[in-house]
Amino acid sequence: MLNGIISGVNELGGGFGETLIRRNLGLVYEILDEVVVAGVPVSTDVEFLREVIYNEPDAEWKSSIERKPLKQRTESIITHEQKLISRSEVFVDLLETVTGTFNPSGEALRSEIEGSLIMKSFLKGDPELQVQLSGNFSILNEEGHKTSYETVILDQLNFHERVDTTDFSNHRTLKIEPKDGEITLMKYRIEDNTRLPFRIFTCFDDFPEDDRATEVVVRIRADFPGHVTAQACSLSFSLPKYTLSASNTITPDTAADEKASFDFDSKTINWTIPKFVGCTEKTLHTKVLLEHAIDRSNEFEEMGQVDVRFQIANWTSSGIGIAKLKVFDRTCTHNAPKKWVRHLTASENYSQRF
Fold this sequence. Notes:
Elements: H1 2-13, H2 18-23, H3 25-35, E1 36-37, E2 40-41, H4 46-52, H5 59-62, H6 77-85, E3 89-102, E4 108-122, E5 127-134, E6 137-139, E7 152-154, E8 156-159, H7 168-171, E9 173-176, E10 181-191, E11 198-206, E12 213-222, E13 229-238, E14 243-251, E15 259-263, E16 268-277, E17 281-290, E18 306-313, E19 321-329, E20 338-352
Parallel strand pairs: 3-20, 6-7
Antiparallel strand pairs: 1-2, 3-4, 4-10, 5-9, 5-19, 8-10, 11-12, 12-17, 13-16, 13-18, 14-17, 15-16, 18-20
């Protein structure tokens, strides 16, 4: 869709760049308004946009653009938007939030996953929706299912009262007759036996020549597949209140938009990693200079914990996924609906203690 928006601005605005966008905000805004209606993607087709865009580009670019004569609408903009919104669609999200606490050597002291299967329906008619789940999981105390070392145990599982779970035990299939709006079809919780996306390791390196200086080393490792990328990843931790200065070095230093900074007022280190590829690791070396000599006996107590935040699309920490999404129109009077599926894992309370 982003490429389609860029193509639309390029075709209708005569190019794509910071200066053009700044001088043609009205045109760009109108394109975005037509591409997405009520939060729902519509179309990025250039011919479609030619018919519905009324703003002209800045005069400087006008001469280089071949604009077809605009066709007159035979319906109001409100009617046009109502038709777009009236399309038959269903959105199903499998969202997981991960809690993890680690010791300095990277061992998990506590782990928990809370998952939600959320449906937002704009389906027409009187359809039946079926969602089949995948993954090697079993329910605590569930009979009739073999478990192995790799089996994920759901410690708690709840369904919405309107969900038909007749086929869930044998086929992991949920059935529902959806109504317009959003509902949570299923919620689950997994404790301890979890696959955590990141491991965090910390240590201190001393400087014998200066007893006021120390180096904090924070290493984070991505334990999810290499074809998966975490987004908006960040780490932060506090330094002692008597810190005078701190300098940061990241290894490997491969991303231009990756940075670590020291906030003197809050005595906090903030490390941002916009994209973190699976099966890789990164290390932050923070050299800290203090007002007075370090008390080695409680050096760890002077430091705060490392807090980690992240989002990982198209991957779940539990391995549970949406295998099939089917819509059965029992009246056979409507076109096949659009079906949208999303998997997302995000941090809840993810930290490592010094």
